[in-house]
Specification:
The chain contains 2 helices and 14 strands. By secondary structure, it is α+β, with helices and mostly antiparallel strands. A hairpin with a 2-residue loop joins β12 and β13. α1 packs antiparallel against α2. The structure holds zinc ion.
Length: 215
């Protein structure tokens, strides 16, 4: 969601640059002909060349700006926006990011630093973005866990897996199957606890993920 907003802002900026590329040379022509009329005649040829080179400069700047849009990290394969599971008809988000209520006392208890994605046992788990596997091991209460460093301040973590299909040091592409869903560690049911870290701090994965995929 956040990255589509950014994309729209960048699109808006491109539109402004296009408008500027059209308007500024036009204004320059207007200003030049006004001053030419008031004082010494200016060669039409050289003022045309000036305007043409200004337009060329704007066009070059616009092209650079479009490169920036393409290279925006939010759109890249290293940005963790891919859903780490493809929900079957019985899959769902069983716990969201933030404070959760104790089911008995209904009081706020622990802070949940990720989202829980519940589905059938051994459902495939996909790398949300490309990167390097920095941990692939049994993490006590979190069970079999994968941590991927995306090299841009983002890391993603996948816990309670039934099987780990990559090893520490492996490079993975976005969408690569890295594990299968289980209930290892402290888990009441089959699910993947999915976390996103930005510069070491857990953020709400829903702020970076695309809409969920099914099937
Ligand atoms: Zn969880």
């Amino acid at each position: 969601m956040r990255h589509s907003i950014l994309r729209n802002i960048l699109r808006g900026a491109s539109a402004l640059l296009i408008a500027a590329a059209v308007l500024v040379p036009a204004l320059a022509v207007g200003a030049r002909s006004a001053s030419a009329a008031a004082s010494v005649p200016v060669s039409g040829r050289s003022s045309f060349d000036d305007v043409a080179s200004e337009a060329e400069a704007f066009r070059a700047e616009l092209a650079l700006n479009q490169e920036d849009v393409k290279a925006a990290p939010d759109d890249g394969e290293y940005f963790p926006h891919l859903w780490p599971v493809r929900f079957s008809e019985s899959g769902y988000v069983s716990s969201e990011f933030g404070n959760r209520l104790d089911p008995v006392t209904e009081e706020k208890t622990e802070f949940h630093a990720g989202i829980d994605l519940a589905d059938k046992p051994n459902s495939k788990i996909y790398a949300a973005a490309a990167g390097t596997v920095t941990e692939a091991e049994d993490y006590g209460g979190y069970g079999l866990t994968i941590l991927i460093d995306h090299g841009n301040g983002y890391e993603t973590r996948y816990s309670h897996c039934s099987n780990l299909l990559v090893s520490e040091g492996d490079t993975v592409v976005q969408g690569q199957i890295i594990a299968t869903m289980g209930a290892t560690g402290r888990a009441t049911g089959v699910h993947c606890d999915f976390r996103v870290y930005l510069d070491g701090t857990a953020i709400d994965p829903m702020t970076v993920l695309d809409p969920p995929e099914r099937g």
